[in-house]
Amino acid sequence: MVAVLGILVTWGVMSAGATHPHKLPCTFPAIYNFGDSNSDTGGGSAAFYPAAPPTGETFFHWVTGRAGDGRLIIDFIAEQLGLPYLSPYLNSLGTNFRHGANFAMGGTTIRNLNESMSVNGVPPFHTEIQVVQFRQFKQRSARLFKLAKRHGDESEIRRLPRPQDFSKALYTFDAGQNDLSAAFRTMTNRQFVAQIPAIMDELAKRISILYEEGARAFWIHNTGPIGCLAVTLRNLPKPAPPGYLDQHGCIKSQNDMAIEFNKQLKKKVDQLRKKLPLAAFTYVDMFSAKLKIITNAIKLGFLDKASICCGYHENNNHVWCGNDGVINGTKIHAGSCRDPSSYVSWDGVHYTEAANRWIADQIIKGSFSDTLLPLSQACHGPTPMTT
Fold first, then answer.
1. Any bridge partners for residue 283, and if so which?
2. Which Pfam family is one of those matched by this entry (predicted)?
3. What is the pTM of this model?
4. Catalytic residue numbers, as ranges
């Protein structure tokens, strides 16, 4: 397989300078999000074990269930659209679903993995379950909204989505990284490549179901450069074997798999555009956006790309963020750094709020979108590139 990393990075740069005909801004009354911990605003914490400090310390100043010190990219997307932060579907308290819901769950994969391949030993709420939850949410909320209207319960009405808003909402997807992580543990790269078409078919089924439910605007993130995760970079073999690292100092084989995965995802999105002609699809090149901040970390005012704010990860000894452990007979508490804003990586796997903000700023303006349209125009179809 020939890596196309240079093409992907060039695409992001070209898109930033491209122009497109004027289109009116879209009015998105709600967001419905599906994915993994990169966009989980508390679903995993509600479903399994509650999250613990120091997560959430930067912006929320309390534990929200997000994998980071503050806001995620999905939070900045909501801000850009003038909408509240998304309530996790599984949260039983403090929820307001008028402007959407978040079905994302830490550990989520696109396909349904068996327990031996699950992420972190917990069978995740894969995307099929998330879409089932959405359908139930849509049906039950419509019934409750009707009852609230009948009884004049204004407080209940304000908490529930308006039935007509489902077709006007933005539907966001950010999943795939855990499919890659599970594959690296259980199969060869060649075996995984052979399975990617089936994974894409599964994702297409989920999107088609949402389309049948009235969804019309889709914002789909590809997967990031998993071979550049800080927790990996801090534990590279020394010296690294010839060909083990790519030109950015990341694990080449893992990034090659992410690139192939994204190539097939882009192809599937193009197919869905033809199959579902009433929908607008935006394919967002998160790989290039994240690679840009990782490889230019110091130039952008961050510490080195291998620096981790929270947790202990040295010589293949790991104590994850907020946990206690024993290293070489010494008890340690893996707390956070003094200034998370100077780090790209929060815990070795997830990004800090500062990094998420930088990435969000890039993708929101359309710099890494195949449609060349900003988030505010994501209800429109692709625009031919002109430079």
1. 220
2. Lipase_GDSL
3. 0.92
4. 37, 347, 350
